[in-house]
Design brief:
Four Helix Bundle (Hemerythrin (Met), subunit A), mainly alpha, elongated, homodimer
Chain lengths: ~150, ~150
C-alpha cells in the first residue's frame, strides 16, 4: 500500500471513529453504553423468540411492539465501538477494529434482517415472524462468533 | 386489615409484579436490563444536555433524534423493578417496593416531562429545549435522590 492510500485509509478510519467516541466522555462510557444497548435489545428480541418458539402464546401486538423496539435499538451499539474502546470490561475481540469493514458489514446485515423482522411483525403473521426471527438470530450468532469472546 | 382486604391487596401486588418479572428469566436479568436502559437513556439525554448547555453547537435534528430516543427509552425501565429484584448488583433502594404508588408517580412524572422534551425538540427552538431539558433533569434527580443509593 503506498503512502497516499495509507493516509486515505487512516483518514477514513478516523472519520468513522472520532465522531463516535466524541459522543462519550470516556472509553468505558462507550463500553457500558453498547453493553446496555445490547442487553435491552436482547431482552426484547428474546420476548419475540418466546412467542416464535411457542413458549409464550402468540400476541401480534406484543410482537410488533417488541420488534419496533429491537429495530430502534439495532442502530445504537455500533458508534460505541469507537477507536480506543477495545479495553476494560468488554468481550469485544480485537478483530472489530482490525476488520472494520467486515464488522460494519455484519452490523449492517443484522440491521437489515431486524428491519425485515419489524415488517413481518406488522403483518401479524406468525410464520413470517418465525422466519424473520430465525434470520435475525443467525446474524446475531455470526457476529458474536466472530467478534465476541466466549 | 381484614383477610379479604389483605387478599385483595396481595392480588393487586401480584398483578402489578408477576407479569413484569415473567418478562425476565431471573431477577438479575431484570436488574441488568433496567441498568442498561438507564445507561442508554442517560447517554442520549446527556447529548441533549451538551447542546442545551452550549458545550456542543446546537443541532436541531440531533436534539430531536436524541429526544425521540429518550422518549422511547423512558418507558422501559419500570416493569423491570419487579418484586424480588431488590437484591444483587443494584443501587435501587427498598422504598421502590415499599412505596410503589409514589415510585410509579415519580416514573410517570418523568415520562410526562420527557414527552414534553420530545415535543419541544421537534419545534427546533433551543429555548424550549433548554426549559424542557431542565424539567426532565429535575425529575431524574428527584427520583434518584429518593430511590437510588449514593
Amino acid at each position: 500500500m503506498n503512502v497516499l492510500a495509507t493516509l486515505s485509509l487512516a483518514t477514513a478510519i478516523a472519520t468513522l471513529s472520532v465522531p463516535a467516541l466524541a459522543q462519550f466522555q470516556k472509553p468505558e462510557d462507550a463500553v457500558k453504553y453498547r453493553k446496555g444497548a445490547m442487553t435491552v435489545m436482547g431482552a426484547h428480541f428474546g420476548r419475540i423468540g418466546a412467542m416464535a418458539n411457542g413458549r409464550v402464546p402468540f400476541d401480534a401486538k406484543a410482537v410488533a411492539d417488541n420488534a419496533a423496539l429491537v429495530e430502534t435499538m439495532s442502530k445504537l451499539p455500533w458508534p460505541a465501538f469507537a477507536a480506543g474502546t477495545d479495553k476494560g470490561e468488554t468481550r469485544a475481540l480485537p478483530e472489530i477494529w482490525t476488520e472494520q469493514a467486515q464488522f460494519k458489514e455484519s452490523a449492517d446485515k443484522f440491521q437489515a434482517e431486524v428491519a425485515k423482522l419489524a415488517a413481518a411483525a406488522k403483518t401479524g403473521n406468525l410464520d413470517s415472524v418465525k422466519t424473520a426471527f430465525g434470520a435475525v438470530g443467525q446474524t446475531c450468532k455470526s457476529c458474536h462468533d466472530n467478534y465476541r469472546k466466549e
